[in-house]
Amino acid sequence: MKAEELKAIVQEKYGTIAKQSKAQNETSCCGSTGCCDSIDYSIFSDSYNHLDGYNTDADLGLGCGLPTEYAAIKKGDHVLDLGSGAGNDCFVARTLVGEEGRITGIDFTDAMLEKASANLQKTEFHNIDFIKGDIEDIPLPDQTFDVVISNCVLNLVPDKQKAFGEIFRLLKPGGHFCISDVVITGELPQKLKEAAGMYAGCVSGAILKDDYLGIIKQQGFEQIEIKKEKAIEIPHSILLNYLTPDELREFKQKKAGIFSVTVNAIC
Asked: Fold for domain 3-266?
């Protein structure tokens, strides 16, 4: 599929997700029935319950890590959250930057932005903004942010070179990012790569881990470090929606792996 078609799929699916509860979203890999059927999205996500600033209304259960936990965010920092959704990571980051800092969340799904704004209105925070924009072409000025974070979003971006180029552009010299994302080792079957549902569910949009780290390096980042890595097991019952039993056996024999990783790098 073309990039614009993929983006339209993601907008539609995550627009539906925004209107559902966390419990509903955890019943499928992309948060809506008809995507990956009955997969439990908690196989990707980590619990936020122990983090200061955690906002249950903003947690739709869609992440694949805890980027704020490894982002070394300091008081007074200006932080950008790419694909901010209902605002979950923004509210946690706000606790870290304090009154002196600022948080900007960007998303391209209207329903998510509306949900994030509604969640913000329930708080007393005055230094969080949610804006609409495409991660491949972010409508913000150069060298604005101290830290960029993102949680299980860049795997949904068709042009990851552009996305990381935008991150580099937006960071101040010496700034850094901390991103949780989905990557693969080995080769996904072609049918999974072409499945729109698996794309919106964070699987077929993932690329090889070495290629992912290579893109980060190509964009000029230094001190690239994986802070956390976790294997993701997609249940056979879901994979069989896309693969024949023989294709599934072949896939397993090739030992291809799907992982969530949390990566840091400095501009």
From this structure: Rossmann fold (3.40.50)
